[in-house]
Design a protein that fits this description.
42% helix; 9-stranded mixed beta sheet; 12 strands; 3-stranded antiparallel beta sheet; Arc Repressor Mutant, subunit A; 15 helices; 3 domains; alpha/beta
Amino acid sequence: MNNDHDLLYTLALQKTAKVGDILAKKLIKHCGSAEAVLKEKKENLLKIEGIGTYVLADLYNASNLRAAENELQFIQREAIQAHYFLEKTYPQRLLHCPDSPIVLFQKGNADLNAAKMISIVGTRKATSYGAQFCEELIENLSPIQPTIVSGFAYGIDIVAQRSAIQNHIPTIGCLAHGLNQIYPKVHSKYVDSVQKNGAFVTDFWSSSKPDRENFLKRNRLIAGMSQATIVIESAEKGGSLVTAHIANSYNRDVFAVPGRVGDLQSIGCNNLIKQQRAHILTTAADIVYMLGWSLEREEIKPLQKQLFVDLSPEETSIHSYLQEKGQSMLDTIALAQKLPIHKITPILLQMEMKGVIKPLPGKLFEAV
């Protein structure tokens, strides 16, 4: 916020019962600021389409401002960043989500507008298969350094965020409560690492408790902040599917990891794929190419100048083909190598990481 005065009135509006995020933004855009909304005459606000006496019943309650003063003191004391939805520091991807919060709180140093950002969610009862897939996925993505967003919950969430820390990738934990606590408490041991390597964000006040409905509400942040949501293991019902459906409603890409037919923790993912609500995800390359990411030269760890780079037989064959043919499309390379797309994409990604090929627009590749 520009100053604490503006933040105070924004907090008071956020505290107002019956005025949710969508309506609050409508009122602010009509009046110019949260302070102007709270000081506007009731009869003038009632002229706005969709605004009725029921909605405005709590707007002029003086206790909202007193509560906002207490919360402002907490924010100042804990050095929390407050991002107003009309400011540049606010996550720009959230601006495209109608129910995004008017103010978002952050503790940590992560860039909430990082160019490459994905959300990883899944069951709280992760299997060894799901956990291993998640760890390998993040390790394979590490040269690209995408920010990993998740919910800091049991299961796949904490596996993803712990793996991001281990691979020195920024990670953002979206909390279902205020920044004065951590739930579950057992994950407190990761707090310092997350804040050093990323951040925690929430739109809940310090007075909020980790109630069930709060977890469902915070899922919109997980889905809205990222370019894509990845579901790694999910039962037939669960919070990760809610996040995936929210991402669908925001017109964001969704990926799901397939599982064996009959596996209880794969039913949700299999259904997402079957219903064409998610792309099938088998390797890190699926994400890289579907989202149009590329390894910029500065992102590739420089290789020592040498006569020979350690390439597998498949990589050697592809490199020779590209040297001979020049720029070639992904489909053409796969056909020439007699390999299906889903098998050749991870090989190409590894070759990018080794610096021996580079991607071009239009799914073209060329030898370096």
